[in-house]
Model the fold of this input.
Amino acid sequence: MKRRWFFASILFILSASLTLALSSYCLPNSVTLRSLAEKRGIEIGAAVAIPPLKTDPIYQQLLANQFNTASVENVMKFEYLHPQPNTYTFEQADTLVNFAKSHNMKVHAHVLVWHIQLPKWLTEGKFSRDQLITILRDHIHKVVGYYKGKVQAWDVVNEALNDDGTLRNTIWLQGIGPDYIEMAFRWAREADPNVELYYNDYGADGLGPKSDAVYSLVKKLKAKQVPITGVGLQMHVGLGWAPPKGDVLANINRLGDLGLNVHISEMDVQTYDGPGTEEEKLQKAANLYADMMSACLSNRACKSFTVWGLTDKFSWLPGFTGKPQSPLLFDTNYRPKPAYYALIDVLQNK
Ligand code: G3I
Done:
């Protein structure tokens, strides 16, 4: 039995290495997203899922070869790190932080204050305003303190706004009031004087009511000396519904003018809807990736470009939309797609 497992493992590692070797057959070994991004002075990242990071050598190799920063897709969210009132569980997140350290990668930690993926003890507890303030402050102090010096950045507040630019009616807004945003940033800074602190949102990538609201929110925070480093433009887009490159650049420019960093923080492209053959759709997705990378490279305020997953195999989108999707840079067999080569081209030539 043991022998069978041994040979099965050897076979798996060999086939993984072969796939990886074939997947980069078109490029010299030294040309990777990571090497090119480092030359251009920006970070290139992927959101990381823990199960394959723990068990899949090809996933590990691809991540470390192609990316120099890792975003934490799920396991730093409240329900993972703080499942019971007095229990914190850091093991899964530590796996990623340790991997990043041993491969000379940075970690973009995600997320301190969100309205989703909260534990039941929190959502079903009937807490007063003062109690909720204590819970959130203790959570931020504990978690940011634990990872002090080990992560480069935190998404402090995520998706606090509705599409029309009003504040989203979350447990935090209801229980604490609009000041929870400012408080969260200040508590994060108390726990780590050096870590970068971000406001992160979707559908606010180009120009429009929501991105105007993000702009005005962060402008007010800056005016009140709230310690905010930058804004994450998530960039969850689809064929046929993505902001024009010019609007994204205008948005990056105005945020940069406030003295803020900008990250393209969670890019993926829904490919299911829209006309065209599969090949044409992959090319359209590639063009969108190229546009957004090019917008990012146009202003030094844009420091980082992250895709929301390493390969299509583990993307959240097929499950979420109930449709086959091909949203990322590597396919389900970890082969590079047109989007990958489009980013290589922009980083190399534009
Ligand atoms: O952990 C359980 C597992 O125990 C169970 O077996 C499995 C069965 O479905 O579910 C697992 O939890 C899932 C979790 O991802 C981990 O895979 C949840 O059901 C699922 O809802 C959760 O989805 C995540 C989603 O946030 C939650 O809203 C996605 O992976 C993650 O990519 C997505 O990420 C968000 C960012 O945090 C914020 N911006 C938008 C982005 C996309 O929605």
Residues 48 and 72 are 6 Å apart (CA to CA). The mean pLDDT is 94. Strands lie at 43-48, 69-72, 106-113, 153-158, 196-201, 230-233, 236-238, 261-270, 302-307.
